[in-house]
Every structure is written in structure tokens, then in C-alpha cells.
Specification:
The complex is a heterotrimer of chains A (252), B (339) and C (288).
Chain A (H helix, E strand, L loop, with lengths): L1 E10 L2 E11 L4 E5 L6 H9 L6 E6 L2 E2 L5 H7 E4 L11 H6 L12 H13 L15 H15 L10 E5 L7 H17 L4 E5 L3 H7 L2 E6 L2 E6 L1 H4 L2 H8 L11
Parallel strand pairs in A: 3-8, 3-9, 6-7, 7-8
Antiparallel strand pairs in A: 1-2, 1-4, 4-5, 9-10
Helix pairs in contact in A: 4-5
Chain B lengths: L2 H21 L7 H13 L6 H35 L11 H15 L11 H21 L9 H25 L2 H11 L8 H20 L1 H7 L3 H6 L4 H23 L5 H13 L3 H25 L8 H18 L6
Helix pairs in contact in B: 1-3, 1-13, 2-3, 3-8, 3-11, 3-12, 3-13, 4-5, 4-6, 4-7, 4-11, 5-6, 5-11, 6-7, 8-11, 12-13, 12-14, 13-14
Chain C lengths: L1 H14 L1 H4 L12 E4 L1 H10 L5 E4 L23 H5 L5 E4 L6 H9 L4 E2 L8 H14 L3 H24 L5 E8 L4 E5 L4 H8 L3 E2 L7 E3 L2 H7 L3 E5 H8 L14 H4 L3 E4 L11 H12 L3
Parallel strand pairs in C: 1-2, 1-3, 3-4, 5-7, 5-9, 9-10
Antiparallel strand pairs in C: 5-6, 6-8
Helix pairs in contact in C: 6-7, 7-12
The chains are: A alpha/beta (252), B mainly alpha (339), C alpha/beta (288).
């Protein structure tokens, strides 16, 4: 689904991503781990199209990302982040409907409204659909934003495989909702096999439990990439994070 | 309230208010005279009765001008607030009004010397060019060289600086102006609808309607922008293009309106706020409802400007400020309004 | 700055609304004249030709009874409908009216407008204007009398002037209502001419008739006498605020307490009373 070829990103003389190549498969949850400043977030932004690589290419289904317009891209690629911003008061369902903006011109179609309903249901925000977003608590806002992002890629659009990127969405969630979100992503990918998930998380336990493949980044380069069991070894973790651990990645 | 019923209510009030506004003024015009004025102009016969001519040549264009200028200013306010994601922005803030005022002042002071004369169109043209130049200036200067993005903060700060520059330019021009010219500048800076005439009106209507329809096309993208530039881009919005297009629409619409009637403040600020309280911030609603409420507010202000001290007339800028400021303060103090 | 202007203009409008509220008591006149020139207004009243004057501009303040007439507002901020509500059959103006679009609208509606001859601001010029207006209103006799009075008053004033050995330097401060600032009149102004006839000299020179008041201007002028026109004087005289105007407190005029009030309409244009006014100014600028 997503292939990155020799991607390098440099800004103001600083190399944030150094010659990274990898292939992410469809139907898999691919998580990226690494210490602060390793270039995880930059890599996600390069894949989402927010940043352009200084060198190398990002290919989506063999098509160069640069050749896909923002508008096209928005139809099959969504990014879960920790942003809660909304500069003016809007009702919850209006915020969620924004996720469908790439899919309709003018007025929302019935299918768009239906998708919003389902997505709100998934994230337990349906009963607050007519409330002012700005009056919600931080956790509630976060769920509304998740519902919006899921609405964006709820169903196949024009036969293009979908891509969900996670730009550290778990940061401000408590433990329950961190697992809750990851479970929902897992369930969603199970029923939508064309989906590819690539994401950055901080918690090694979550990465171990929910990922199909893990990329370890260190000093802007790939340190290791593969199955979680092969990558998350005591030795690797010590070398990348400078933390000695005993193997304990088991949570039910 | 449903947005449809709001629309019907606004339309009803606007028609009612326009009728009242056309009927009442310093000169008393009877219903019979108004009727005759209409039938005579529709038949194309020459009108001899003075009151009928006052109605057709002065009163009517003024009332309609007020409605369209109000619509243009209010939609300008909606667009700018949405674009800058800031509720205290109005079209004046990116330099449009001060540039237009500078262009007008330049015409008052140097027009005769430079032998620039396109008749009645010279002043509007000068103001329009001023508005476009200053706004382009603001937009160009606020682009940072290193990154491709133009940040809102730098745009606003540049706007403040350029505003100060152009306003001191207006100050300088009124300082070097001979007395009558200086008075014209002052007069124009307070705004007045009294100079409306049909040719100007056709032009303002044309520009306002086109800009209004165009801005409706960008309403969804402006909504997405509420989530922040990054999130909007992820929803397929090209931020840079959106900014240029919306600014362009705003500049043309506001400078054309300002060019013919002078600087009228507060409509662009107050109207979007009122609507947000009424029915939320969806720009698809704010744009068309803003046009209607803006028209309503300016028609009411003009009526007040003409009737409060009748037969004398207040500058309309004073009336909009007097009405606008208390409303604004009440709005800000309401607790269920979030920013 | 803009807000100040707004508040101030509003204040003018409100303080003068007494005059806006004046009743039109000449509803049945066939001929209805609106006069938008303070100079014309005074001459018309002096001629006794005020019968058909139904309204005047805000600056027409002499004679006192003129304030009983309805006013159509400030001569540079006119409104077409306000003028037309007086149902004028003629508008008299001296070409110093605005805004431009109002003049255009009046022309388009074919409202008759008249301006008398543009004479030099001299005694001869004033004489000619009074005679032209006299013949227009069929008051030739009255006009001749006014001209004669003007001439004798002027002769008397000029003779008086010769008696004074000193030529005091005079600073005239006027509150510009349109721009909301204190201005000083210069040697280019009409007032300078009257001052000269009265045996004084205007303390400030400039290319234009008015200049903004500033400490430098006052210091450079160092006047013996300061005159303030009525509105500005009244505005400041409560609470001795005149000395707080920039630079005033260091002048000879202030130290000798030679600061006086003068009516604007006695000073800013020439008319039948100019001789009288010169005598009045003479007394003010040659105290003791």
C-alpha cells in the first residue's frame, strides 16, 4: 500500500529523516516507535502529504504522493491526531460532518449523514450531537474528533484503498481510552481489509499488543523494522531508548 | 431556530424596513407620488414632479445602496473572521478600509493637480485601488521567506502596521490639504449613503452579488479551517489558495462598497457575532444570512441617521458605532458565548 | 483619532439641534430661498431682504434673529434631502459648499442655484458685492446706505489707527469644528486684513489661511495679544483652560492678561459691518 523510497527530510540544515525506505502492507497496523526527536512525527507527516520529502519518494499504491491532489488524498487518507482546536462554536454533529466534506459538494447527501451517525455511535458521542463542541470536556472533544476522522474514511471511495495515520493520538488519553481506541482501530481494520494503518505511539506495551509490524527509529534512521516479537527485544529497546527492561508486554 | 425560518424572517424584515426607509425622510413624499414615480419610470416617461424625482433619483438608490453595502460589509466580516479564525477581525484589519480611505484622500488632495478626471468614477476608483494596494501589501509582506506558509499572526500584525501607515497617510494628506479638501476627507471617513446614484448602484450590486456567490463556494473550506490549518489541509483544503481567493473576494467587495459610501465600521464585526449566537458558526449559513442581516442593519442605521435629527442627517458611521458598540458589549458579556 | 471626530461631530449636531428644531414659519411663501453662505446671510439681513429666506447654514450666525430660522447644517457636510425638505425655489451659495455629490444631485434635480460675483476680499470688493445683492433683491437704496456706512466706518477706523504708535502682534486662535483641532489664522486670512486695518499685525505667516496650533508656532509668534473666536473661547474659559493650550502660558499676551474673546462672524468674512468690526478689533488689540 505505502512504500517509502530513500526518503530524506531536511529543514534549516537539520536532517529530521535520513534515507528511510520501507513498505507498509494493507490490512496491517504498522506502528513507529522511537525516542523523542527520532523523526517519528516527521515521517508520519511525510506520508500524510503535509510535508514534502527533500529527497526520495512516498508512493501510495505505486502512485507518487506528490501527484495526488490534496482533495483526492482527503477522500481516502485520514489522520488521527491530538488536535482539539475549533475556533468558533459549532454543534458536535457539524464537526463530525466535516469529515465528510471531501466527499460531497454543496449539501451533504443522505449517505454522509448516515455515516456521521454511525461514527458518532462508535465513539459514544451520539447523545451529545446537538451540544456546542466548545462546551465539552477534553476527553469528549477528543472522541468527537475521532468520530470526525473515522467518518472521513468510513467507506471505500472510488475503489481507492484507505489509509489511516496516527499522529500520537493517544498522548492525552487515559489508559482506558488508549486501549479503547486501539481496539476500535483493530476492529475497524478487521472489517475493512483495504485499510492500512501507520502510526506513532509512545507506549511500547500498546505497540506490542496492537501492531502487526513495528518500525524502530533512532537518530532519524530506521533501527529495526519487522514483526513486533522480532523488533521489541530487550537489546533493541536498550540501544534505542537507553532503558533496560524485562520482557513484560502482556496485558489483557 | 431553523435556518430557513431565520431566512424568511430576515427577508420579511428587510422588505418591510426598506419600504419604511424609502417612504420616510427629510422630504415628505406621499404614497401617490411614490406610485407615480414607479409607474412613470417603468413607462419611461419623463418625471416632472420634484418629489417623484427626489424619490427616484435620491431616496430609492440610497435605500438599495444601503442594503447592498450592508450585505457586502457583513459578508466581508464573515469571510475575514473565518479566514483568520478570530472573532475580532473585520475587513478593515487587513488594510482594506485604510487603503481605500488613503486612495480617497489622495484623490481629494491631488485629484485636481494631477488632472485625473474620470468624472464621478474617479473617487471610487481611487478608493478601490487604494484598498487593493494596501491589502496586497499586507498579504505580500506577511509571507515569510523561509517557509511557504503565511501565518495568521504575521498577517494580522502586518495588517495593523500597514493600517497605521495608511491612516497616518490619510492624516498627512488632511494636514497638507486646503480647508475644503480636509473637510471632504473627514466627511468621507465617517461614511455616507447620501451620494448614491443608479450607475454606482448597478456596479455595487453586480460586484456584491458575484462576490457573495463566489464566497458561498468557499464556505465549506472555511468551516474546515476552524479545525486549524493542518487539519483543514488533511480534509483536502489548499490553505494558501483559499487565503488568496477569499482575501481577493473580500478586498474587491469591501473596497468597491467603501469606495462609493466611505468608511462604515462595525457592521462587519457585529453581524457575524449576532448570527453565531442565533444559529452557530457554520459559514454556509453565516454567508447568506450575513448578507441579509448586514443589509438589515445598514438599512436600519441609515433610516435612523436620517430621522433622528430630521431634517438634518447624521453620518451613518456614527450611527453604526452607536448601535454597534452596546450590542457588542452585551454579546461579549453573555456567558453562553464561547471563545 | 477617528473616534474623537465622531464624538465631536455628534456633539455639534446635538448642541445645534435646537436650531434644527426651528419651525418653518414661512410655509406660505411663494419664493423660498435657502442661503448657504454666512457672508450672504448677513448682507441679506442688513439689506432687509430676509423675507423669503427660509433656511440658512449652521455658520450663518449674524444677526441674532437669524438663529430663529431652520438650518440645513454645516456648509461642507450638506445633505440633499435636508435642503430639499425646505422646498427651496432658490439656493444661494458662495461656492464653498460640499460634499461634491450633493451639489451634483441638486444640479441634476434642476434646483435653481445662484452665486453672486466673486469679488476680492477688499472694501471695494465688499462694496460691489453689497450693491450687486442690493440690486438683485431690489434694495438698491438700502445697499447704498450700507456701503456708505461701511465707507465712513472704515475711514474712521483707519484714522484711529494712525493714532497708535505701536503695532501689536496678534495671534488669533480658532477652533476648527470640522477637524476638531485648534487652529491659528495666518497672514493669508481675511482676519489678517482686518487686523492690519485695525493697526495690528498677524503673528503667524503661512501659505494657507489656517495652520494647526503648536508650541513652536506660538513661541515663534510670541504675540502681544491673543484673540480666541467665540466657540473655542467658551469651550475653554470655564476653569481657565486657555493657558493649557500648547505654548500659550509663555507668551507676553498671557503674562499681561491680554487674551480676549471675539465673535467668529465679526472676523472671518467682510460685510457691511466690517468697519464697525475693525473699530472693535482696534479696541481689543490696543488695550489701555
Amino acid at each position: 500500500m505505502v512504500t517509502i523510497e530513500n526518503v530524506t527530510y531536511e529543514i534549516k540544515g537539520k536532517l529530521l529523516v535520513k534515507d528511510v525506505s520501507a513498505h507498509f502492507e494493507k490490512g496491517k497496523i504498522n506502528l513507529i516507535l522511537g525516542p523523542n526527536g527520532a523523526g517519528k512525527s516527521t515521517l508520519i507527516k511525510l506520508i500524510s502529504g503535509e510535508l514534502k520529502p527533500t529527497q526520495g519518494n512516498v508512493l501510495i499504491e505505486k502512485l507518487n504522493l506528490q501527484q495526488i491532489s490534496l482533495k483526492e488524498l482527503a477522500k481516502f487518507r485520514a489522520v488521527l491526531s491530538q488536535s482539539l482546536e475549533l475556533s468558533f462554536p459549532l454543534n458536535v454533529h457539524e464537526v463530525v460532518l466535516m469529515g465528510r466534506y471531501p466527499h460531497f459538494e454543496g449539501k451533504a447527501k443522505a449517505i454522509d449523514l448516515e455515516i456521521c451517525e454511525k461514527s458518532m455511535e462508535l465513539f459514544d458521542v451520539k447523545e451529545m450531537k446537538n451540544r456546542n463542541y466548545l462546551t465539552l470536556s477534553g476527553g469528549e472533544k477528543q472522541r468527537v474528533q475521532f468520530a470526525r476522522v473515522f467518518a472521513q474514511i468510513w467507506q471505500l471511495s472510488e475503489g481507492k484503498s484507505r489509509l489511516l495515520l496516527l499522529d500520537e493520538p493517544l498522548t492525552f488519553l487515559d489508559l482506558f481510552y488508549q486501549y479503547n481506541l486501539m481496539k476500535k482501530i483493530r476492529a475497524f481494520i478487521n472489517s475493512n481489509p483495504d485499510l492500512t494503518v501507520i502510526g506513532v505511539v509512545h507506549d511500547i506495551n500498546i505497540a506490542a499488543k496492537f501492531s502487526d509490524s513495528i518500525m524502530l527509529l533512532k537518530d532519524s534512521k530506521i533501527f529495526d523494522f519487522g514483526y513486533p516479537n522480532n523488533v521489541l527485544t530487550e537489546k533493541n529497546i536498550f540501544e534505542v531508548f537507553k532503558v533496560a527492561i524485562k520482557n513484560c508486554f502482556e496485558i489483557e | 431556530m431553523k435556518s430557513n425560518s431565520i431566512g424568511i424572517a430576515f427577508l420579511f424584515l428587510l422588505v418591510l424596513l426598506s419600504l419604511i426607509s424609502a417612504k420616510y425622510g427629510a422630504v415628505e413624499i406621499s404614497h401617490q407620488e411614490i406610485w407615480n414615480a414607479f409607474t412613470h419610470s417603468l413607462q419611461g416617461t419623463e418625471i416632472n414632479n420634484l418629489n417623484e424625482r427626489i424619490f427616484i433619483q435620491i431616496r430609492l438608490p440610497r435605500v438599495i445602496m444601503g442594503a447592498f453595502v450592508g450585505a457586502a460589509l457583513a459578508v466581508g466580516g464573515v469571510l475575514m473572521q473565518a479566514l483568520f479564525r478570530n472573532p475580532i477581525v473585520e475587513p478593515g484589519l487587513v488594510g482594506t478600509s485604510s487603503g481605500a480611505a488613503f486612495g480617497a484622500a489622495l484623490y481629494f488632495v491631488l485629484g485636481a493637480t494631477l488632472k485625473l478626471n474620470l468624472g464621478e468614477w474617479t473617487l471610487p476608483l481611487a478608493a478601490c485601488i487604494g484598498g487593493i494596494v494596501s491589502t496586497t501589501f499586507v498579504f505580500y509582506l506577511s509571507q515569510s521567506k523561509k517557509s511557504n506558509k503565511s501565518s495568521v499572526v504575521s498577517l494580522l500584525l502586518t495588517g495593523i502596521a500597514i493600517n497605521a501607515l495608511f491612516l497616518s497617510g490619510v492624516g498627512f494628506l488632511s494636514y497638507i490639504a486646503r480647508d475644503p479638501q480636509a473637510r471632504s476627507i473627514t466627511f468621507w471617513n465617517l461614511g455616507t449613503l447620501s451620494g448614491s446614484y443608479w450607475e454606482a448602484l448597478y456596479f455595487v450590486i453586480g460586484v456584491t452579488v458575484v462576490c457573495l456567490l463566489l464566497s458561498l463556494r468557499y464556505a465549506k473550506q472555511l468551516n474546515a479551517l476552524m479545525l486549524g490549518e493542518q487539519e483543514a489541509q488533511l480534509l483536502g483544503v489548499s490553505i494558501r489558495q483559499l487565503k488568496i481567493k477569499v482575501l481577493l473576494i473580500n478586498v474587491i467587495m469591501v473596497s468597491v462598497a467603501t469606495a462609493f459610501v466611505g468608511v462604515i465600521g462595525f457592521v462587519g464585526l457585529i453581524v457575524p457575532h449576532l448570527l453565531r449566537m442565533l444559529h452557530g458558526s457554520d459559514n454556509r449559513f453565516l454567508i447568506w444570512a450575513g448578507a441579509m442581516l448586514g443589509a438589515l442593519v445598514l438599512t436600519a442605521s441609515d433610516l435612523a441617521a436620517r430621522l433622528l435629527l430630521s431634517p438634518a442627517e447624521l453620518p451613518i458611521g456614527i450611527v453604526t458605532s452607536i448601535i454597534g458598540v452596546p450590542i457588542f458589549i452585551v454579546l461579549l458579556r453573555r456567558t453562553n458565548y464561547f471563545f | 483619532m477617528k473616534n474623537n471626530i465622531i464624538i465631536f461631530l455628534l456633539a455639534i449636531q446635538l448642541t445645534s439641534c435646537g436650531r434644527f428644531g426651528n419651525q418653518d414659519e414661512k410655509k406660505n411663501n411663494e419664493e423660498r430661498i435657502v442661503c448657504i453662505s454666512k457672508q450672504y446671510s448677513e448682507i441679506i439681513f442688513a439689506l432687509g431682504a430676509q423675507e423669503n429666506i427660509v433656511a440658512v447654514d449652521l455658520s450663518s450666525t449674524y444677526p441674532t434673529e437669524i438663529k430663529q430660522l431652520p438650518t440645513i447644517g454645516y456648509h461642507r457636510a450638506l445633505s440633499t434631502e435636508t435642503i430639499l425638505s425646505m422646498k427651496p425655489t432658490l439656493i444661494l451659495h458662495d461656492n464653498n459648499i460640499g460634499p461634491e455629490h450633493v451639489v451634483n444631485q441638486l444640479e441634476e434635480l434642476e434646483i435653481p442655484m445662484k452665486t453672486f460675483g466673486d469679488y476680492l476680499p477688499t472694501i471695494d470688493g465688499t462694496d460691489s458685492l453689497i450693491r450687486e445683492m442690493g440690486s438683485y433683491f431690489r434694495k438698491e437704496k438700502e445697499a447704498a446706505l450700507l456701503c456708505k456706512k461701511l465707507k465712513t466706518d472704515m475711514e474712521k477706523a483707519l484714522a484711529e489707527t494712525k493714532k497708535y504708535s505701536k503695532t501689536p502682534k496678534v495671534l488669533i486662535i480658532h477652533f476648527g469644528r470640522a477637524s476638531n483641532v485648534y487652529l491659528v489664522m495666518t497672514q493669508k486670512s481675511t482676519a489678517a486684513k482686518m487686523l492690519e486695518w485695525a493697526g495690528g499685525v498677524m503673528a503667524v505667516n503661512d501659505k494657507r489661511g489656517m495652520k494647526q496650533l503648536s508650541p513652536e508656532v506660538v513661541a515663534a509668534a510670541n504675540p502681544d495679544i491673543i484673540l480666541l473666536t467665540d466657540f473655542g473661547y467658551d469651550r475653554l474659559s470655564n476653569g481657565n483652560e486657555i493657558e493649557k493650550l500648547p505654548g500659550i502660558s509663555s507668551t507676553k499676551a498671557f503674562r499681561n492678561n491680554h487674551i480676549f474673546r471675539i465673535e467668529e462672524h465679526d472676523l472671518v468674512y467682510l460685510g457691511p459691518r466690517t468697519g464697525e468690526n475693525v473699530l472693535l478689533i482696534q479696541k481689543l488689540i490696543h488695550p489701555q
